[in-house]
Amino acid sequence: MTYPDLLFVPYRDTLELLTTEDAMRICEEVYLMHARGTVRWSKPPSFKLDTPAPFHNHWHVKSVMLEEVPITGVRMYNYFDDGKRNTVGYLECARYILLTDPNTGHGLSFVDEHWSYGARSTASAVVPCKWLGPKNPEILGLVGVGTMGVNALRSLLTLHTFKEIRVTSRRRETREAFAREWSETLGIPVIAVENPEQVARGADIIVGGTTSSEINCYAEWLKPGSTFISLARRELNPADWSKMDKVVVDDWDLNYLQPYFRKMVDDGVFNRGQLYSTIDKVVAGEKPGRENDDERILIHTTGLVSQDVALANFIFEQAKARGMGITLPAAR
Q1: 140 and 242, same domain (yes or no)
Q2: Is 109 helix (H, G, I), strand (E, B) or coil?
Q3: Number of structural domains found in the chain
Q4: Angle between helical axes of 172-186 and 147-157 (0-180°, round to 10)
Q5: Quick one: 164 and 247 in the same domain?
Q6: pLDDT 10s digit of each residue in the chain, 332 long?
């Protein structure tokens, strides 16, 4: 019996093999797979190993099969978080996806996930703006200008042309540097402001993408017709979720595994009956998207490993076709 060697696709190759436009398209395709019921989750859907001080070490492992491809993938990442420093979005943490052939169980590829993780994290939350965002947004607000903020901006620029962008972050020098760079790149005003309220008031689309566990935004700051994209823990005040006209999430049960989301639900602040829809149903046309210009809509994502595996498989196929990556010998 013959079978192929494995292909390792390193970080630098992934930068060339996956574009933001690719990530947007693939995330949308996977939402449709979810709507068609062709995604198979592992049980449990997430395995975690959390070790306390002095290590502050965290392993997360997830697995899924995409029947329509077909491909099976296991996503694994390890990071440090002591409450002060968190390496989740940085190159120093370990991030890999192992792809296998579901027909044989044979290994196909190891794909470094640092770039595709960042691209997926924002693309998956921005894609539903095609149905749930304002018609002609002019002002974008970014709370957080790290990896998530940059990738959210890249994803949104595939859909819209903005007249003004407002940004804030913990450090003045970081937000001012971001504003200078993107003002020059886009040729529009990118304005660094002091706090999230200055970002949110009057903005058409607001993105919360920080590593903070603190509440960053409140519904009273959001104008009628705006869309708030929440990429992290408590970007929008949990007590304000019920004040939004529509709330959509990528998956209720997966979000419930997250401590902040679970506490919000268990405390009775927000319940499943108040959820408008999951994103896949909106993308598939099973539920209407935005229905009037005044609706305030919240899009919240925790991240779907199905999209991570689909992006990794795309990178793997591109690497094979272009003769990139490093061959690893299979067992023989």
Answers
A1: yes
A2: strand
A3: 2
A4: 20
A5: yes
A6: 688 899 999 999 999 999 999 999 999 999 999 999 999 999 999 999 999 999 999 999 999 999 999 999 999 999 999 988 889 878 999 999 999 999 999 999 999 999 999 999 999 999 999 999 999 999 999 999 998 999 999 999 999 999 999 999 999 999 999 999 999 999 999 999 999 999 999 999 999 988 777 889 999 999 999 999 999 777 999 999 999 999 999 999 999 999 999 999 999 999 999 999 999 999 999 999 999 999 999 999 999 999 999 999 999 999 999 999 999 999 98
User: Which range marks the domain in which residue 28 is found?
Assistant: 6-118+305-328
Looking up tokens 């995604």 gives 39
* Tokens at 222, concatenated: 């959001």
Tokens, residue 242: 């019920």
On whether both 288 and 319 belong to a single domain, the answer is no
Q: Where are the alpha helices (DSSP H) in the chain?
A: 11-17, 20-36, 114-126, 129-132, 147-157, 172-186, 196-200, 252-256, 259-266, 279-283, 305-322
Residue 194 has a CB neighbour count (10 Å cut-off) of: 10
Inter-CA distances, 295 with 69, 163, 198, 238, 243, Å? 37, 22, 21, 18, 11
